[in-house]
Design a protein that fits this description.
Number of domains: 2
Largest sheet: 9 strands, antiparallel
Number of helices: 2
Distance between the termini: 11 Å
Radius of gyration: 21 Å
Order of helices and strands: EEEEHHEEEEEEEEEEEE
Length: 206
């Protein structure tokens, strides 16, 4: 499985950033006021919206271009073209939500060697979208050697952990995403400088 490209981190990205946890619930209401609800998503999907206050294009020979990256426009525009709008997928590393330490992700049963990595936010636990790096794996608090990482979010053991063993790991992750639109409005606000008021994308199922 080929690793999707990573969304570029550019100095010209501005504030604010929007992150929208999204669910889908079917609600059937009765005249009595009672209702039946059915959750249609197996897990959360996330929508993101970012802005870019300044992007420098080729040939802008100023101190602003140096701080922004002299080809930041080409980097972001080329990335969007590479994805072909909504068609392609990419990885977005949320600066505030991209790593877990000592994260519990399962319990051994004496036979299973592959487990899905999880992450916990407050009191909510869910599978990570796409694990990018596995730093350490522990069984009952003891570091393990020979463990591997398989796309998109699977940790593998050379031998099955014993029944009842607690499994935890330190790892980094990203969100597997696609853009929400097939066109984007890059605005040239002055010679060599561009902006992008809104760039929207959402996570998808691996």
């Amino acid at each position: 499985m080929t690793t999707p490209p990573l969304f570029p981190q550019l100095a010209g990205q501005g504030w604010s950033v929007h992150k929208r946890p999204t669910f889908s619930t079917r609600v059937a209401s009765h005249v009595s006021g009672r209702e039946v609800r059915a959750s249609l998503y197996a897990g959360t999907l996330y929508e993101f919206e970012v802005t870019f206050d300044a992007l420098a294009s080729n040939g802008l020979a100023t101190s602003a271009a140096a701080s922004l990256g002299p080809t930041s426009l080409q980097i972001l525009l080329g990335f969007y073209l590479q994805c072909q709008g909504q068609f392609g997928t990419f990885l977005y590393s949320d600066p505030t939500d991209n790593a877990a330490h000592g994260q519990a992700f399962g319990t051994g049963d004496g036979g299973t060697t592959s487990f899905v990595l999880q992450r916990t936010i407050g009191g909510f636990t869910e599978p990570v979208s796409y694990a990018t790096q596995l730093n350490a794996v522990h069984v009952n608090g003891i570091a393990q050697a020979g463990c591997g990482l398989a796309a998109p979010n699977i940790v593998t053991f050379p031998t099955a952990p014993t029944a009842g063993a607690s499994l935890s790991a330190d790892f980094s992750y990203a969100f597997l995403c696609r853009f929400l639109d097939d066109q984007q409005d890059f605005e040239n606000v002055m010679s060599g400088l561009w902006t992008l008021e809104s760039l929207k994308f959402r996570s998808i199922r691996p």
